[in-house]
Design brief:
Layout lengths: L1 H11 L4 H27 L9 H28 L5 H30 L4 H33 L5 H21 L2
Helix pairs in contact: 2-3, 2-6, 3-4, 4-5, 5-6
Length: 180
Amino acid sequence: MYERFSSIVRKAFGKYLVATNVITSGLLMGIGDAAEQEIEIRRKIHPTGTFDWTRVRDMTSVGLVIGGPQHYIYEYMDKFLPGTSGRTVVKKIALDQSIVSPVCIFLFFVGLGVMEKNSITKGFEEFKKKFITVYSIDWCFWPPAQYINFAYIPSRFRVIYVNVMTCFYDVFLSYAKFII
């Protein structure tokens, strides 16, 4: 049993790493939204008061779209900024916060806007309206999380680590998207 599980894990984080990263990105984004919906329902602030599976589907879809680029971004960072020295980790965090985070926030709002059958323009308007709030929280959450990622997590596990952290962060993103 252990050998079979070990073989699956080796393949998932070896030969099929891109697929693993894409799938976990989508699944964990959907789980994050489901958790936020449960919080909203219990606090009686959910827009409809009932669980919205379409919303989970849309969040999962956006996560699937973001998963592939995440894989290649971290691969690129490791190639051009190799190592785990303090200076290298700070450079990776700066790159992540100055380029990757704003792009992901943009893709989140515009992507969900499209999934909700709104225009790209409407998604962009929502992005502009909520960017400062989301990006401010992003700066509180991601630099410490990325420090751990870049300093201690092996390269092939970087995206899965980010996806797990994103699951927690997505509780806030769902709140920002649907409540704020």
